[in-house]
Structure formats: structure tokens, C-alpha cells
Write a structure and sequence with these properties.
The complex is a heterodimer of chains A (717) and B (123). Chain A is 35% helix and 21% strand. Chain A is built from 18 helices and 23 strands. Chain B has five helices and five strands; from the N terminus they run βαβαβαβαβα. Chain B starts with a strand and ends with a helix. The chains are: A alpha+beta (717), B alpha/beta (123).
């Protein structure tokens, strides 16, 4: 970004999202009864900072709203307003609105919607007549230079003095040419120096306007032994010959802007030249007490060795692109390392040799670097969960249900990309839970449940995966209804018996969700299948568990990172491919397996107590094979896989080569979406291998014979 | 000239830094009053001026100034308050705390620079 202001603007919006999170967290704490000053202060500061930044970018809508919001929060801070549940509810809605306005400002949109009435009303109730709500930066600011009307020709004297005297503010008219000089008398209060104002500097600032000569009246100075260098007892007279003819008294007075309540200043226009000595352009001479104070060389502070730099900040902000580049490079490093190991022939090496131990060390280091780089991208799910509180609020409001959200495991970390791409699926799941899962307060009461429903949002890490659950204590899935609808839509054949687990999973089928029940929330034609697909795109799996009348929980299991995969490298049709380890439940040699034909061209194989379909990986992937699929080859093996969203099946491959961590490489846009391939990788010998998505292997055509995934599983009971 | 700017808003810090450095004014930054004191104490050479926000966590602008003014090591450093507050009593509070002057946010960059030059006597 070339334009520094654009960069600062970007910083502002980044900061706004953090502040909005802080605001929301604070308000939720308030709602939960945590009403201490720190909480209220942090909430106030968040809004205040947004207002401050918005002002810098001239974002009027945002400033106006933030100002009104701030007024109300200031009322809380000053105990003029109690944080009752009603008030906090208004504040929460307002924080949502503030978020919208920030987003609008960021996207350059304007929003005609007015200030929410409830917030405006609260602000009004806190504002008495002499304070005004609304942003008006000319209001009430006592900082304008003091304009004094004087007759430019006649000699006039105006005194600027008396702290807090009321002043008129007017636009000083342009002056006519002025050929004389100005005489100033500057009589500071004794404590001027304590404010950090320094006469010497003020005179220097005057020198910018013209040449000056100063005279000091030291008659008020006490004898030396009583002299206090911090107390000013001097009066100056300054003659100023302006460089520009049109210098106004306002401009002169503005030099003394910060000292005007600490001095008696008179500015007099004199049309005669300066009498007596010629005016010099040397710096004004100032008396020793003042100079002595200007550079208080302190020795005491020198002893401290603490570095300013180190205390500045413990975090730095890095462009995500840079991290992605680093992640990619580390991926390459992992590949090179494994290529190196392979070409040297690590396995054949004497394990105690120097090269072998060097290679081991390299491998360990590579892995450590990889972990560290992945950790950079990791982010706690907290911000994601916080965003969901708004969804809960809105959904509760729209459905007129009482909902309480409980979150757990907010510090669980997950890849940043994953966090971002989880927002939509989670939103949908939560809306579903509230809309379809939770009952109305009356129905809950009738069922003997507390009137307020609970939505649970939990995250936890389980080895190399993160589990995120959305649970509710509502009515659970009405399986009879689900089955009925699936039958109506021909999603399952009428003669199929489905167990409860299978019925629940019908919810994830494309086309299950309908537009028929358009509710204000979830029935927008977007079904759980969309959630399902989004999770699968993240290499995640989704599971559902429901108990009728008690509630429903949907859990998502996601890999910690999108960059590395534990895979099984297999060979088939002279190709090498990678099957994700997470999908594999068992492997068998073909010779040991019990394969039986079933129907036309379909083979099944026994897995424990049941038969599951057998698919030849090469055929499934569309490679031509010249062997009979029933033929048994000594090397060939069966991988029993069970993608989370379907029953198990077996994959036949020519050989299993190795189990290895591989770096996931996207296929690139030109390939489009290939159903049974999720990505590619580069193997240790430099060859490219495809990573298979077993879930996509189930063909929709002739083989296996049923179109529905749930029919893949053939039960033998 | 070297200015220490204290503000809890990264946006404002960035703007101040941009504004001042464009004018050749060196800047150090701190995120709140406590941090400001830490940075100040760690500096070998005191800054020529300090610019501070009012509303900040841990130690606000007024509290910061009061602490600085009580410490002889920092005597005489001009301190400008940078604030969005438009309350009437601001000026008195600033004065009571020992501030040298005040600049209202959103600030006019030229005005900020002029004010800093005035209170420091430096170009």
C-alpha cells in the first residue's frame, strides 16, 4: 500500500473489530452481572476509541452514533444510569449497530437507518439542556484563538487574562496593511512554569512572526537567597516587527494559546516604529531561572537500563500474506527434507553414521519449524464465539424465544483461515438450533423445562483435531418427521430401514431442507447440506447426536491446520495417491479378505460382522485398469474407509507404500472441483500425488447400484 | 525534536506518528499511562514534548501527567493533551493536572505540529 493514510485507515478498521469484540465482551460481562468499574471503563473506552478514530477519517455517521453511545456509557460510568437488564439489552443492540456502521464505513456504504430510538432516548435522558448530543466539533471547545477586534489605526489595548472569562468567538476579519509594530506585555502567573509552558519558547514562537526585542522587568525578583527557580517573578515587554504586513492580533495571541489563563497578556498595536534601540533578530534574552529549568538534566533516570523498545509491545502485526508465504516455504522445506532423506537412502544407512544422525536432526528441526509456523497462524476461537452471541441475540429476538448462550473452550486455537470459514456454518447451525431446536417458552414450561433455552457452544482440542460443538436443550430431532420428509423427496427408498443415526444424517442431504417452511430465520432454502459442504471443504467432518425431548448436538471435527495431512500413500494403476489417515479404519490384504459378488458388477467385502461395498480405487478415480476386478493379486490391499458422513466401504489398491505426513498443495483454480480429489502433494521423490477424498468416490451412477449414500452399507443381519 | 505520544488507539498512534515524522519529528509511542512512564524512564534522553490521550486503561492521561509532574526527573517537559473530549471542565482538569496545553481530536495536523513547536521552542 503506497498511501500511508490508506494504511492507517486499514489499521483503524482492524482496530475497530478488536474494539467491537472488547465492547461486546464487556457488555456480556455486564449482562452477566459483572458490573465493576473496570468493565464499564473498558466498554466506554472501546466506543470512545472508535469515535476518536472515526473522527480522524471524517466518518460522520459513525462518529455521531458512537458519540450518542458514549454519552449513555458515560452515564453508566458516572452512576447516573444503572445497568439494568433493559439498559444492557439496548447497549448490546447498539453494539451490533455500531458494528454495522463500522462495516458500512469500511465498505464505503451509507446507511440511511437512523439512530435506534432506545439508545437515543437513553442518551437524551442523560443529557441536560446545556450539553448536546451529537457530534459537533465546534461546540463548546474553548480552544479557538481569541480574536480581538481592534481598530487597526488607533492604538488599542486589549487584555487577555482572567482564566475562564467568557469570550465571544467570531471570525477575525482580515486586516488591512499594518505598518507599525506590536508591543506585548507578558506578565505570567508565578506558577506558569509548572504547567510546562516556557516563556523562552513562547518568544521563540513569536520570532516566527517577525523580529522581536524583549525587555525584562525584574523588579519583583526576591533576593537571591529567597529565589525559587520554579516561581516566575518576571514581566516581559516584547516588541514585535511582523514579517508580514497582515499579521493579526489573533495570530499573535495564538502563540500564547496554552498560557492564556496563566498570564496577563496585553497586545498593543503601535503604528510608530520601535523607539530607541534597533530591534534585533537574536533570540530573546530570557532570565536565568527560566533557562535553568528548560533542560533539567537528570542523572537519576540514567541508571535505569530498561530498554524502551522492549517494553513497547510484546506483539507485532504481520500481514497474513507474509505468513502464508512462510507456510508455503516451510512446506517446501518439508518436501525437500524428505526428498533428501529418500535420495540418500536413509533407511539403508548405518543408523549411527554422522549423515544419518544429521538427517534425523534435520527432520526433527523441520518438524519443529513446521509446528512453529503453524502456531503463528493459530487463533483462539474466542472472536468467532463472540460473534455468535450476536447471532443468538438476533435469533432469539426474531423467534421470540428466551435463549441463553454458554460458551466453553474459547481459548482453543485453530488455523486463522478455518476460524474465518467457520463463521457461516456456525451461524447457520446456531440459527437452526434456536429456530428448530428450542421450543417456545410455553412449550418448554409444558415439558417441565426452564423457560429459557440454552445453546451451548464448545471448542476443544483432541490430538491433532479441534472439535466444535453446537448443542441445544430443545426438543431434539423429530425422526418420524425427518424420515417422512426424506421419503416424500425420494431421498430414501420406501423399503429401506434406517437406524436413528442414519435418519439424523438425512438432515445433511442436499435437497432435504426446503423452502416450504420459510421462517424468519433458517428456512431460507439453505440447509444443513451447505454447512456440511463447508465443513468438508475444510477437511472436517460433522456428526449429529440427538435425543428426542432432550436436545441435539452437532459436532464438527476439524484438522488443526489446512496445510499438513497424515496420509497413507498407496499405489494403484501405476499412480501413487494419498488417502487421509483420518478416513481409514482398517487395512487388510486382499487375500485375507472375504470378497463376494453382489448384484451386477458389485462386490462386497466383509468387515467385522457386516458386508460393505468394495470399490477399486483406480476405477473409482476413472483410471483404466486392464484387470478383472475380482482377480486377486498378492500385493493388493483393501483399505476400509469411513468418511464421517457415510457408512464404511472398502477401497482396493495395488499396494500400500507408506504412512507419511504430506504437505497439502491446492490444485489451482484451473482444475475446478474434482469430486474425489481434495488436493495434491509432492512426495519425497519429487513426484506429484493426488490426495483422495474418499467421500467423493461414491459414484452417483450405475455402480454401486443405489443412488443414496446410505445405501452403500449392506447389512447382513 | 523528539515527541513521546501516548494513546491506547493504534489508529491515533499511527496518525500521530505519520503526522510528526513527515515533519521530521522523531516519535516514540506508548499505549497507556503506565506504559508511558515505563518508556519515559527507559529513555536515555528525555523527549522534548509529550502528547497524551486522556481515556486510557490502567492510567489515564490526567493521572499520567500528575505522576510526571511529581517527578523532578521529568520537570519542565511540555505535555499536550490530545483528546476528543469537549467538556467544558476539560481545560481546568488539564490545568489542574499540570498539562501544558491541549489539542482536540480529530486533530488538524498542521495545528498539532505548530503547537508542539511552540511549546518546545524547537523547529
Amino acid at each position: 500500500m503506497a498511501d500511508p493514510m490508506e494504511e492507517i485507515r486499514a489499521t483503524f478498521f482492524e482496530e475497530c473489530s478488536e474494539l467491537l469484540e472488547q465492547l461486546e465482551a464487556g457488555l456480556l460481562a455486564l449482562e452477566a452481572g459483572d458490573q465493576d468499574n473496570d468493565t464499564i471503563d473498558s466498554v466506554f473506552r472501546a466506543v470512545h476509541s472508535i469515535k476518536g478514530g472515526a473522527g480522524a477519517f471524517d466518518l460522520g455517521d459513525l462518529v455521531g452514533f458512537a458519540h450518542c453511545f458514549e454519552t449513555v456509557l458515560d452515564g453508566l460510568r458516572g452512576n447516573r444510569l444503572a445497568p439494568t437488564p433493559d439498559v444492557v439489552a439496548v447497549l448490546l443492540r447498539s453494539s451490533d449497530r455500531l458494528g454495522d456502521l463500522v462495516a458500512n464505513a469500511r465498505d464505503g456504504k451509507t446507511d440511511p437507518a437512523a439512530m435506534p430510538e432506545d439508545l437515543a432516548a437513553l442518551a437524551d435522558s442523560l443529557t441536560n439542556t446545556d450539553e448536546q448530543v451529537g457530534w459537533d466539533d465546534s461546540s463548546d471547545l474553548d480552544f479557538s484563538p481569541v480574536p480581538i477586534d481592534i481598530d487597526p489605526v488607533a492604538e488599542t489595548t486589549q487584555t487577555l487574562a482572567a482564566p475562564d472569562q467568557s469570550r465571544q468567538v467570531s471570525d477575525a476579519p482580515a486586516r488591512v496593511a499594518f505598518s507599525g509594530h506590536w508591543r506585548l506585555t507578558f506578565d505570567p502567573l508565578p506558577d506558569l512554569l509548572e504547567s510546562g509552558n516556557e516563556p523562552l519558547y513562547l518568544f521563540r514562537a513569536l520570532q516566527v512572526l517577525g523580529r522581536i526585542r524583549t525587555e525584562v522587568d525584574e523588579s519583583d525578583l526576591p533576593p537571591l537567597e529567597d529565589l525559587d527557580p520554579k516561581v516566575l517573578r518576571l514581566v516581559w515587554t516584547v516588541h514585535l516587527i511582523p514579517t508580514a504586513d497582515d499579521l493579526t492580533e489573533t495570530e499573535i495571541a495564538s502563540v500564547f494559546e496554552f498560557a492564556d489563563d496563566l498570564c496577563v497578556l496585553t497586545i498593543t498595536a503601535e503604528d510608530s516604529p520601535v523607539a530607541g534601540q534597533s530591534v534585533t533578530d537574536r533570540p530573546a534574552k530570557t532570565p536565568p531561572p527560566a533557562t535553568a529549568l528548560t533542560q533539567p538534566e537528570s542523572l537519576g533516570a540514567r541508571g535505569k537500563e530498561k530498554s524502551a523498545r522492549s517494553s513497547l509491545s510484546s506483539t507485532i502485526r504481520v500481514d497474513l500474506d507474509r505468513i502464508d508465504r512462510l507456510v508455503n516455504l516451510v512446506g517446501e522445506l518439508v518436501i525437500s527434507q524428505s526428498m533428501l532423506a529418500q535420495s540418500i537412502g536413509r533407511d539403508a544407512m548405518n543408523s549411527s553414521s554422522a549423515s544419518a544422525s544429521g538427517l534425523d536432526e534435520l527432520q526433527q528441526l523441520t518438524r519443529d519449524i513446521q509446528d512453529s509456523v503453524m502456531a503463528i497462524r493459530a487463533q483462539p476461537v474466542r472472536s468467532l464465539f463472540q460473534r455468535m452471541t450476536r447471532i443468538v441475540r438476533e435469533a432469539a429476538q426474531l423467534t421470540e424465544k428466551n435463549v441463553r448462550m454458554i460458551t466453553d473452550g474459547e481459548t482453543t486455537e485453530i488455523d486463522k483461515t478455518v476460524v474465518e470459514r467457520l463463521a457461516d456454518p456456525l451461524t447457520h447451525m446456531i440459527r437452526n438450533a434456536i429456530d428448530h431446536g428450542l421450543e417456545s417458552p410455553e412449550a418448554r414450561a409444558a415439558a417441565g423445562k426452564p423457560p429459557t433455552g440454552t445453546v451451548h457452544l464448545r471448542a476443544r482440542q483432541q490430538s491433532d483435531r479441534v472439535i466444535i460443538e453446537v448443542g441445544d436443550d430443545g426438543r431434539g430431532i423429530d425422526r418420524a418427521k425427518v424420515l417422512k420428509r426424506a421419503l416424500e423427496r425420494n431421498l430414501v427408498p420406501a423399503d429401506r430401514h434406517l437406524d436413528p443415526y442414519e435418519i439424523d444424517r438425512l438432515l445433511f442431504l442436499p435437497g432435504f431442507s426446503t423452502n416450504e417452511e420459510v421462517s424468519a430465520l433458517s428456512g431460507r432454502g439453505v440447509g444443513m447440506d451447505v454447512v456440511h459442504r463447508a465443513i468438508r471443504d475444510l477437511n472436517g467432518t460433522i456428526a449429529i447426536s440427538s435425543t428426542e425431548g432432550v436436545g441435539c448436538t452437532i459436532s464438527i471435527s476439524l484438522p488443526l491446520t489446512l496445510a499438513i495431512l497424515d496420509g497413507m500413500i498407496v499405489r494403484t494403476a501405476r499412480q501413487r495417491m494419498v488417502i487421509p489417515l483420518s478416513a481409514i479404519i482398517e487395512t487388510q490384504t486382499v487375500t485375507a479378505a472375504r470378497i463376494e459378488p453382489m448384484g451386477a458388477g458389485q462386490l462386497v467385502v466383509k468387515l467385522q460382522d457386516r458386508f460393505v461395498p468394495l470399490i477399486d480405487l483406480a476405477e473409482g478415480m476413472g483410471f483404466s485398469t486392464d484387470r478383472d476386478s475380482a482377480e486377486v493379486d498378492d500385493d493388493s490391499a483393501l483399505l476400509f474407509v469411513q468418511p464421517e458422513d457415510m457408512g464404511p466401504f472398502a477401497l482396493r489398491v495395488d499396494a500400500i507404500e507408506a504412512q507419511r505426513q504430506v504437505v497439502i498443495k491446492g490444485l489451482g483454480d484451473s482444475f475446478g472441483r474434482i469430486p474425489c480429489v481434495s488436493a495434491a502433494t509432492i512426495l519425497g521423490d519429487g513426484q506429484v500425488a493426488l490426495i483422495v477424498d474418499p467421500g467423493g468416490l461414491m459414484p452417483s451412477g450405475s455402480r454401486p447400484p443405489h443412488s443414496d449414500r446410505f445405501h452403500q452399507e449392506v447389512r447382513m443381519q | 525534536m523528539h515527541v513521546l505520544a501516548i494513546d491506547d488507539s493504534r489508529t491515533i498512534r499511527d496518525m500521530v506518528r505519520f503526522t510528526l515524522e513527515r515533519e521530521g519529528i522523531e516519535t516514540s509511542m506508548a499505549e497507556d499511562g503506565v506504559h508511558g512512564i515505563e518508556v519515559l524512564e527507559a529513555m536515555d534522553k528525555k523527549p522534548d514534548a509529550i502528547l497524551t490521550d486522556v481515556n486510557m486503561p490502567r492510567l489515564d492521561g490526567f493521572g499520567f501527567i500528575e505522576k510526571i509532574r511529581k517527578n523532578d526527573a521529568f520537570a519542565g517537559i511540555p505535555i499536550l493533551i490530545l483528546t476528543t473530549e469537549s467538556a467544558r471542565e476539560l481545560k481546568q482538569r488539564a490545568r489542574a493536572a499540570g498539562a501544558t496545553g491541549w489539542i482536540v481530536k480529530p486533530f488538524d495536523p498542521a495545528r498539532l505540529v505548530v503547537a508542539l513547536r511552540t511549546v518546545t521552542g524547537l523547529r
